Amino acid sequence: MKNYFWSILLIASIISSCKTDFELNAPYKTIPVVYGLLDQSLDTQFIKINKSFLGNSNNANFASINDCTQFESLTAVIEEYNLNNTLVRTNSLKEMMFGNLDPGIFYEDSQKIYYLETPSGFFNEDYTYKLNVSVPDKNLNFSAETQIVSSSRFIFPQIFQFTFARNGLEIVQDLDLGTTDQYESPEIKWETAVNGKSFELVIRFHFAEYTSNIDSTEKFIDWNLGTQTSVDIDGGEEMFKVANGKTFFETIKSRLSNYEFESQVLKRSFGPQCVEIRITAGNEDLNTYMQVNEPVTGVVTERPIFTNVENGIGIFASKYNFSQKSFLSNGTVLELCLGDLTSEFKFCRNSEDSNNSTDQASGIKNKGYLVGCD
CA triplet 313, 192, 80: central angle to 5 degrees? Predict the structure, then answer.
């Protein structure tokens, strides 16, 4: 009987312990989240400053509530330090609400961002820039600093500039559509920028989409050729990427296929400056941040967290955009307008294409191929 009593007592204690309530969430702590990239090729710098959020249900529900992610008020400044680490200038960031956002899990109507107007010559490429933020009602102070990616030594070599200006983007030489194996693979060459670590190359194709004789919308398609990493950050290193010609047309086809309003499109025209080679240089902090956040491809799914924000998380780094425009070669125009991959998308070249001579333009027409937008 005694053993029976203790057995009942043990079972009761086990059942009681199984019913003990516990919290899945740790106590909430406000963590600042910063995303800002200084770019001296722009006249305005934008920085996103938010806070972490936590709820007792699905956190995706709280992400769509503005008050959960935004600070009610804060003070943010960018400080400029010279080579002796002496403060030489302080600039206050202004606040604005930004709308017209793409759909997503966060609040779509508008979001708060902070900005600083930076006219030409504002940045000193040798200086260090520090973001300091204070949130008095939360008793929070956080900061981050970065060096500017310089325009110094960031150029296209002269021989490439000459070839590109004279021949345009030549990825097809075939002028009679007689073969299907005339795709070229030109090399895009450049020299790196000071403080630049990663370099992303994009070829942007600009065109106008007409839905009536007078109504048109300016659009573009980006052909991303990937990223290269520099050995050092002193600048002047020679780099190149090979642009596979067929991929250009495949990219256009993939972007325009299954376009919802294709039946309304009368034509897509392009002019003399329709091709833009865009190179974006990122500094070392940005390069590390991007590498850490690349998609997982191996069996190990855990990854380290990288941030250069003190008392917060996120990234405050710098980048620089460098570009050059030109035209499509005649063979490329012909392939784009009448070739198997892209002929269905109604491309045509503007008759006022002044970058190509009259002889060049008529060289296509004389063979019976009309690709002008007359």
Answer: 45
* Spatial separation of the C-alpha atoms in residues 277 and 280, rounded to whole Å: 10
Note the pLDDT of residue 358: 39
Sign of the Cα pseudo-torsion (287, 198, 77, 34, in order): negative
CB 239 within 8 A of CB 231: no
Q: Do the beta carbons of residue 72 and residue 136 sit within 8 Å? A: no
Q: Which tens digits make up the pLDDT trace of 108-129?
A: 667 889 999 999 899 999 999 9
Cα–Cα distance list, 133 to 39, 142, 144, 359 (Å): 20, 5, 9, 61
Q: What is the DSSP string of 108-170?
A: -SEEEEEEEE--TT-S-TTSEEEEEEEEGGGTEEEEEEEEPPP-TT-B--HHHHHHHHHH-B-
> 370: number of CA atoms within 13 Å, CB side?
2
- HSE, side-chain direction, 13 A CA sphere, residue 76: 25
